[in-house]
Structures are given as structure tokens and as C-alpha cells.
Amino acid sequence: MNQKKLIAEGAEVAEGKRPKKGFLQPSASSASSAVQSMVDIPVIAIDGPSASGKGTIAERVARALGFHYLDSGALYRLVALAAVKEATRLDDEAALARRALHLHVTFEGGEIFLFGQKVTEAIRSEECGIGASRVAALPAVRAALLSRQRAFRQPPGLVAEGRDMTTVVFPDATLKIFLTASAEIRAERRYKQLKEKGINANIRTLLQELHERDQRDSARSVAPLQKAADARELDSTGLGIEEIVRQVLDWYRQKVAGSQTL
Predict the structure, then answer these.
(1) HEC sequence for 63-101
(2) Can you give the pTM of this predicted structure?
């Protein structure tokens, strides 16, 4: 399933607005068995700093395994964008948490609409990314989005990427990975992405913004960016996309094979 459509449907399921084919809808009497079945659904959780390649790798791994894919950062970007559109301060925690609970998002023909307006490109801007980092530091916003993110854990499995997938959202993930790269390489990657989209960018400015975002993400009081104790670290600095994907798939298959021999 298209990951953008999955974000919208996962959010609606989490809010109880409608059932989704493939999403568990247990009755109260079967709650305990449903919780157990959710735990049994495999999750590959990938954390790492901005521009480390998490999205590309996670999406390709999900495609290779036929799993669902969660881009958790998109949810925070949507909250930040909604705040800007409504002139809500990015430090107004209560207002932002309310917005996070009631985002009206739809996806049609590969496009993303927020309250009826197309925002496909807007949420990928550097400004929106910086706003998302500020919004993500607010405990109430993170709490509001937690159930939405966990609702993506559906058969046959999930590949989730973000900043706290391995430490907070899916602490029992089958495989945990901390994907990193040097700040210089990450700035270069972001620069190329923006230029390909026709967006003017300055690599020195991007590098400075990456350093600032790394500091902000690592220093926040709630769910800071950090390597989980049981996560495998993968430095992508000198590796190609296919090499990284192959490594993640190898680690996952080793995990599965190991669990089957127990």
C-alpha cells in the first residue's frame, strides 16, 4: 500500500473514525489476545539523524518484504505546517497537541492534502522540517501522536523510521537500527535533494541547520534522538543505497532465523 495513504488511514483507525481492512478491530472481550497478536507482528525500527537516509532505506526494505511503511516525521511536519497556516506559535504546546489529535489529512493521486489544501511539497521544505523538529520536542504533541504511530503495526509487518522508533514507539521491535552518516555527507545529500526539486539551497547553511537540529533532537527532554542499547549501528557514509538495504535485510533474516531455532 502507498505509504502516504497508509499515514492517513492509520490516523483514522487510531481515532476510531473507521475500520481499515487489515487493521485489527478487537472487541473489549478480546482485548488481551489482540494485544498479544499485535506484539507478534514483526517491526523493523530505524532511527537516526536528519538526512541520514532513513526514509529511502526504510521504504525500500518495506517494499522488499511486502511490509507497511511508517514515515513518522511526516506526522510532525503536518502538525508544524498546520500550526503555521493557523498562526499558532510553535511553542504553544496545548494548541499543537490538540491539532495533532485532529489533523484532517487526505491523500489522492500521490498528493497530500491538509484541510483540503495540497501540501505535498510544503511538508518537505527545510522550513517545515525545522518546525517539525521544534514541535517534536513538545511532550504533549508526542503523546498525541503516539497511538497514531503504533496503529501502523499491522500484518504482515512494519518498517518504521524516525527519531524514537526504537526507544519509545516500538521498544520491542524485531530489529532495531540506528542509521547515521557524517554531517557533511548528510548536508550534501540534502543539498542534492533540494536542487533536484528546483529549490535553491546553500550547503553551508544546510550544514549549520543540520548541526542545530541534531543538537535540538538529541537534547530534548522527551524521547531524545539516541541509539537504543540493543540497536545495531549502521554508518551509511561510504555506502550506497543498495548496500544498506541488503545489510538491513540480512540482519532481519538472521533475526527471524534465530527466533525460529529457539
Answers:
(1) HHHCCEEEEHHHHHHHHHHHHHHCCCCCCCHHHHHHHHH
(2) 0.77
